Automatic annotation (TrEMBL):
Gene3D superfamilies: SET domain. The keyword Signal applies. Residues 135-279 form the SET domain. This is SET domain-containing protein. It holds the Pfam family SET. Keywords: Signal. InterPro entries: SET_dom, SET_dom_sf, SET_domain_protein. PROSITE patterns: SET (PS50280). It comes from the Eukaryota. Residues 1-23 form the signal peptide.
Length: 423
């Protein structure tokens, strides 16, 4: 969207330039580009002038040579100011929460937040539409679920499916504190500042009104990852909201600096529906189903709709995962053996918790290190690093920490700490 706008702008300016030069002659040159040999002097215009051939390179096919100084031309074809320079706001402030907007960045984005948080968001390089191209999925009406996404080819684990920048970011606490009339006024102001395409995409999401659409489709994230309550924000990504829910999702997502990245959490076959999880997938089935009902539908995933004995087995595994996690985190007394971490990781694999294997392998790797088992610690640390590169990004601190453990378990602070302790 940004590049299209830029092209249109360049085209319009060149048409204006053509009109100007035909009417008034070439503007004077400041000779700023002397010594640049990439353009031959033109017979009609001289060295400082540019012909229709050059204009053609930037998208305008002029039959008659247009003479203008390279400086003038370059001014015209220079990219527009960076998106970060095109923010509006603060506007419509209520109790220190205001509207900020940018019609260029990300194709249009509105914020409902404090000036302090807005400054941080403005510093992000919020990314417009990206990911696998052509998209390895198509949109489809899926029975019992509404709109969904389905793979149109086999997809390899770790493949990035879509990256999207937020269309609307709103501070959660402000939305909760405001009276409905105030809140809706802020929504209207934020919507009015979005370009039509972005606004239409937002409004096409499921939900009665803006508030309901935000509630049902938004993704929560903390500005700069801070746990502080006012750092909690909701972000709208209308394209990502097309992923339906599955309690055992095949797609993982992560949000970095308000840009969301969706990644295949396992190998996916052509024809499979692509799904993320809307809720905590470690919850037992009853609670998961209740949470999903908050979205206004019954969970239709294979696990929830499958045979009862499978649900019972799944819940049993989840209870065991919970128990082992507590034991592995217990450093006051030894309730685990060197193998407990590996069992913990295996339960994740059996349960199909693909998007959480990184943290499971991490616990296993650390536990082997704590018991002084170099080989197994190294093995699980490498696996953890691989999974964490998908879950949190290749450059994430967690992935890096596991690469360091894998390279030298003996140098790690955990090394041998449990081995020497007896029950
Ligand atoms: Zn389910």
């Amino acid at each position: 969207m940004i590049s299209n706008n830029s092209n249109h702008r360049v085209l319009a300016m060149l048409i204006a330039l053509a009109t100007y030069t035909f009417a008034f002659g070439a503007p004077e040159s400041a000779h700023m580009f002397e010594g640049q040999d990439d353009e031959q002097p033109d017979a009609v215009c001289g060295r400082d002038c540019i012909t229709g051939i050059t204009a053609g390179i930037v998208g305008l096919n002029l039959r008659t040579p247009v003479c203008a100084s390279p400086e003038f031309i370059r001014k015209i074809v220079l990219p527009p100011p960076p998106p970060s320079a095109q923010w509006s706001g603060p506007e419509n402030c209520v109790n220190g929460t205001c509207i900020f907007s940018n019609v260029v960045q990300n194709g249009g984005i509105s914020l409902i937040t404090s000036p302090q948080h807005a400054d941080i968001i403005k510093s992000y390089d919020i990314d417009a539409d990206g990911g696998a191209y052509p998209p390895p999925f198509y949109t489809e009406q899926i029975e019992g679920k509404g709109i969904g996404l389905r793979a149109n080819r086999s997809i390899v684990k770790g493949e990035v499916l879509m990256t999207r920048g937020a269309t609307l970011i709103a501070q959660t606490e402000a939305l909760i504190e405001w009276e409905v009339a105030v809140r809706d006024t802020m929504y209207d102001a934020a919507m009015a500042r979005l370009p039509k395409g972005r606004r239409d995409a937002f409004l096409a999401q499921m939900g009665r009104d803006v508030h309901d659409k935000i509630n049902k489709n938004s993704f929560q994230f903390f500005i700069h990852g801070a746990g502080e309550e006012r750092a909690r924000h909701l972000a709208a990504y209308p394209d990502i909201a097309k992923f339906n829910h599955d309690c055992r999702p095949n797609v993982h997502y992560r949000i970095t600096d308000a840009t969301i990245t969706t990644i295949a959490a396992r190998d996916i076959q052509r024809g499979e529906e692509l799904a993320i999880s809307y809720t905590d997938i470690f919850l037992p089935s009853k609670q998961r189903k209740e949470r999903i009902q908050n979205w206004g539908f019954e969970c239709a995933c294979a696990l929830c709709q499958g045979p009862k004995n499978e649900t019972i087995a799944s819940d049993k595994r989840l209870r065991r995962i919970e128990k082992l996690k507590a034991d592995l985190n217990n450093f006051k007394e030894i309730k685990v053996t060197a193998e407990t971490g590996a069992e913990y990781a295996t339960l994740h694999e059996e349960e199909g918790l693909h998007a959480h294997l990184g943290s499971a392998y991490t616990r296993a790797a650390l536990n082997f290190a704590l018991f002084g088992d170099e080989e197994r610690s190294r093995e699980y640390a490498w696996r953890a690093a691989e999974e964490l590169s998908i879950e949190k990004g290749p450059e994430s601190g967690d992935a890096q920490a596991m690469r360091e453990l894998a390279e030298n378990p003996r140098a790690h602070w955990t090394w041998g700490k449990r081995r020497t302790l007896k029950k």
